[in-house]
Amino acid sequence: MGGWLALTPVQAENITWLSSDFPPLAMPGASPAQKGYMDKLLQQVRNKLPQHQFAEEVLPWPRVLFLAQSGGPYCTAMAAHTPEREEFLRFTVPYGYVYPVGVVARLQDKGLFSRFVNPDGELRLHDLLRTTELRIGVAGQRTYGAKIDSMLGPLLQSGARQVFTVHQDNSTKSLIGMLKKKRFDYTLSYPGEAAFYDSPVANLHFYPIAGNSDLLAGRFSCTKSAQTDRSFEDLNRLALSMRKDNTLLDSYERWLPSYLVQPFRARLERQLASPLP
């Protein structure tokens, strides 16, 4: 790999690496043993692209997006690839894949959700949202992805009684806490988030959502500024070499519930065998 990574000093760039606290994927202030998937990713970027300087700046997520839109020498590994963000960011090929947002409910309530679960274990969220018997807790300022947002939108706009909304900064932590206290019946979360806030005793269960269960591609992204041209090129090449990195996979699987590890690996193999999007 050394051949394609070698750059002359004039090509080196000073990049501000935008991060946010997003346990357990990103825990910038944690001890080395507790570092998350995104933290280890940045460490590898620094090790494998030593010709560039990557100075991490940890900010609230809205501030990260604001700076990215303003241009300048900014890159990140945390921005989901969306058409809206393509207006101000350029995205590399995937460096890895993770589970998308799913439904999280109390383990003791599995029987209440069984009629909404397909034989393959995926939950029909569209049907679940139509019942008023079971209430969902959601974050008012969070996007859950285009498909889920389109299901939630009409309910939020109409003030549907089966939707409970929170507006705290750390909304996932608040929602998981409220779910465990039975303020509502289920919420939406990444599986690692739910496991992190549910530990050390696993009282919750994660359901992939039917029609929204494909693994999410993680991509590096940089502003379209000339200040990131070389870094973006190198990150794009580096991403291809990281997709089967065992260190990164181990750090991600560490926070997956045991019943999701094998399904994740099977999905990952299928994803890696598919042509790059």
Kindly describe this structure.
This protein is of the alpha/beta class and about 280 residues long. It folds into 2 domains: about 1-100 and about 215-275, Periplasmic binding protein-like II (D-Maltodextrin-Binding Protein, domain 2, 3-Layer(aba) Sandwich); about 100-205, Periplasmic binding protein-like II (D-Maltodextrin-Binding Protein, domain 2, 3-Layer(aba) Sandwich), CATH 3.40.190.10. The protein contains 11 helices and 10 strands. The strands form 2 sheets. A 5-stranded mixed β-sheet has the order 2-1-3-10-4, with helices on both faces. A 5-stranded mixed β-sheet has the order 7-6-8-5-9, with helices on one face. The two termini are about 25 Å apart.
Outline of the structure:
It is built from 11 helices and 10 strands. It is α/β, with parallel strands linked by helices and 277 residues long.
Mean pLDDT: 91
Order of helices and strands: HEHEHEEEHHEHEHEHEEHHH
Distance between the termini: 23 Å
Stretches where pLDDT is under 50 for at least 5 consecutive residues are: 1-10
SS summary, helix count: 11
Helicity range of the residues?
25-40%
CATH architecture assignment name of the largest domain: 3-Layer(aba) Sandwich
CATH superfamily of the largest domain: Periplasmic binding protein-like II
Stated plainly, the CATH topology of the largest domain is called D-Maltodextrin-Binding Protein, domain 2
Radius of gyration: 20 Å
Shape: globular
Structural class: alpha/beta
- Characterize the biggest β-sheet: 5 strands, mixed
Number of domains: 2
Determine and state the CATH class of the largest domain: Alpha Beta
